[in-house]
Amino acid sequence: MALRSYKGHIPKICINTYVDESAVLVGNIDIGHDSSIWPLVAARGDVNCIKIGERTNVQDGAILHVTRPTEGNENGYPLIIGDDVTVGHQAMLHGCQLGNRILVGMSAIIMDNVIVEDDVIIGGGSLVPPGKRLESGFLYVGSPVKQARPLTEEERAFLTVSAQNYVKLKNEYLEEY
């Protein structure tokens, strides 16, 4: 795996976490226990920090980045991802905050200063524009994203199942190495 220092910050990876050797992680990044970073993920914690919770998986080709502090925005926008989150293939997360038990669909884009509350599904290909707040318990789809409907009990349960499936898969990968 490519862990690169930037201005004295080196990515911190918890024990029992999988980071694929083709992923590139730069700078101020902190990844929680039992999480997984899959092939070709690019994560740059260079001008702000990236924090990824426990049992969270970031799938192939996803891009994770942040926004630097500026005069009008003294803290910038870090990227904060909670626990039991599934980030789909080729998703792009930029300076946003994701709660717990979230599924980000393939190729979804979530922009600066977005807050996604717990227990949310964001459909594949959706665009979440800057500054939007996605309320807990709903499916969001579209470009720009719109609240489609409340999640079913089965969908809510699947959010944890998805995360647990990736914990099992990353354990299998760790056994290979």
Automatic annotation (TrEMBL):
GO terms for molecular function: transferase activity. This is Putative carbonic anhydrase/acetyltransferase. The lineage of its organism: Bacteria, Pseudomonadati, Pseudomonadota, Gammaproteobacteria, Alteromonadales. Keywords: Transferase. Signal peptide: none annotated.
